[in-house]
Description:
single chain, about 300 residues, mainly alpha, Alpha-Beta Plaits, Rhomboid-like fold, 3-stranded antiparallel β-sheet, two-stranded antiparallel ribbon, about 65% helix, about 5% strand
Amino acid sequence: MSEDVDQREDLNPEITLEGSEDRRRIQHLHLVLTAASIESSIRHEGGRYLLVIPPLYFEQASLEIQTYLQEQEAALKIAAKTPVTTSHAKLGVLLYLITLLLMMYLQQATHFGEWIRTQGEMQTASLREGQWWRSITALTLHQDAAHLAGNLAMGAMYGWMVSQRLGAGLGWLSIITAGSLGNCVSGLLHSPGHTSLGASTAVFSALGILAADATLHRFTNHESRFRKWLPIISASVLLAWTGTGGPRTDVIAHLTGFTSGMLIGVLLCADFYLWPNFLRRRQLLCAAITLFSILIGWTLALLSSH
Length: 306
């Protein structure tokens, strides 16, 4: 970065703040100054791209660029210390598919299928009486084959994408946590006689996590105000398109699942939180907690029937 203060004379209308053969780098720094309301422009001279500014803004622009580069360097160091293994993403999706298909088989092809549904579905009255595990068990049950097929396809796709960002273990733990939280909130909002079931609350939780992650990424890139919120806008449109149709659709559960996903997405994807780094290094532990939460949920459902 140039620090030639002697260039800042009234005779010189502009001075060079930064020069590079990398056009994208100079364009990026130009956007940084634009976001900070500092006047600047780009010139191409002698095979190099120059970021030039009025002499009046030299100190302010220098400080802005220096601060930005330090933040970027710190972010890269954090990313280097918190590697995410995505090699198990396929296994996570496979376990998701197996779990839902197995529960559907038990519902449809066994003589205790009705008991499974009764004990595992979301019942607002039972939830308010303390049967919190229904918020988890209901995620594994479905009304029919068509209901199941939709959640298999969308859940596999969104789950894969979340796993690519957070790792398979932490990714599915965040989806199940947000989905069960969404069911709990939905249960508090519905009337006491309301019942529901299906993995769609968790599916839209995954969509919320992805929307939060993409939005946070855009905020760090100094984009325009509209572009910063574009991921959430797009996800909300997708939610409205796929999550509000049909007479049996639980719109409230979809909305609470999506909102819970965005909340957890902010907590897990923002670089200024340290504890997600601990979780990202323990993908196997997160995967075990995910499976255990489902098993303990159904164990409590079984015990509550006696």
